[in-house]
Amino acid sequence: MPYQAEDSPSPFQPLASPSSRRDSIYNSFQDILSNGPNSLSNFQNSFSRSTINHVNNELDVHPRRLSIGSLHRESLGRVTSNEQTRLLPDSNLDSYSTTTTVVQDQEDVITSDEVIGFSTVPQTIFNGINTLIGIGLLSLPLGLHYSGWVAGSIILLLCALSTKYTAQVLAKCILKNEELKTYGDIARYCFGDFVHAIVVLTFSIDLLGAGISMIIIFADSFHAVFGLPKLYLKLFISCIFFILSFIRLDVLSNLSLLGIISTSLIVLIVLISGLVATDYGSLLNPAETSLWPKDTLHLFLSLGIFMSPFGGHAIFPELYKDMRHPHKYDSAVATIFRFTFLIDYLIAGLGYLMFGSDIEDQITKNVIANSVWWVKLIFGVLLGILPITKGALITRPIITMVDQLTLKKGKYEATARFANRLLVIVVFTITSLVFTNFGLIMSFLGSAICFTICIIYPLSFYLKLYHDEFSSFKKYTIVGCITIGFVLAVCGTIAVAVSP
């Protein structure tokens, strides 16, 4: 009689009973809900952990004390490839276990025999997409109008490809020392305290701009839907930010899941609106568009608009450290940026085809102005949820930084925390009253901040840490890319400054 494995089904065995099938379906359903590595509960835990770590570390002006073995702190940043380093005391290490980690620079691949973190590949992809799919996509149709189809398509694709590469570069920088965990750790390790302070300042400006954008979106949208004065709306949403600043961070991270749903529904409704419209704003009867830029000024303005959706690089080192299998990081990042590019190009193309040269700085303005009442109401709800769910997370790192710089233990500590929160929200509110153009804010953030965070800083870290291992050609190539990124950042920033 031929051998048959114990676990293999026999052709003579009876079919499973209905109750067995029901039990099997129930167990599979339970795996999806709570048991399996990719269950919904684990997705939520991965998202919350990623969000909390990112907010806690992004503007930490008093991070873990870094030292390099027996080297003095003054020598931090003068690191060679053969130095044995230790950055953190053992008590501060997270529960990551690494047996073998190798960088194969020739193949540009990160491999690992066994690295145990927490997040699976789908969870990492989800967290990365959530970071990159944000309010920046609302201004992408305006960027396509400024640049035209040809230049705009090329620029958006190059932004996606270059930021994908530098996201992978940040993981390679992490590999230089097992105790590096965050973007700020890499900056301090490479160049010391002064550069770390500059990175903190860059993130501060980025978060300030993002917070202002949230306030503007809320005010513009509710003004368009209900006709309410923008000043009162900005004051109202600022009060909401202030109240939410007292909520625990884990609660806020879970609330921000609603922001992901809102953003996805906004894209879907824009598509549906274009398909059902019969005249103006119709995809079936598209508006007149252009293949080429309006002029040089508008082409430079489009640079920042197209780069702004890719400004989430601060979180990628933490995504890498949190992966169960970091050797799959490169493929996960490729999926993240491929999906993000497709969504960004979809919304940019839809908006430009629907409204052409009449496109506003936010695609939602055009849709709200030319839709039936129920579409306006849905947009009002979604664009109300988006700032409320994400605005508190945006303001929290700024508040944390101010607390670190000003708080002292004592009987007035609670009063000082209250005052710090009030001060931060007032700054956001006043700034939103001064700068009111959403498109220009996105262009500024993309040019001055995102080119810096996504291109200039990561390549500088990479060159510093792997200088002795690179060929002359690769060194000059990286220096050239840094130079190009700097020039584009300056040109885009100047275009915003001189724009009427």
UniProtKB/TrEMBL annotation:
**Main localisation, per the record?**
membrane
| Any one GO molecular function term | L-amino acid transmembrane transporter activity
Q: Which GO terms of the cellular component aspect does the record hold?
A: vacuolar membrane
Topological relation to the membrane, as annotated: Multi-pass membrane protein
Keywords from UniProt, A to Z, are: Amino-acid transport, Membrane, Transmembrane, Transmembrane helix, Transport
Ranges for domain Amino acid transporter transmembrane? 119-496
For whether the record's keyword set contains Transmembrane helix, the answer is: yes
The protein's name? Amino acid transporter transmembrane domain-containing protein
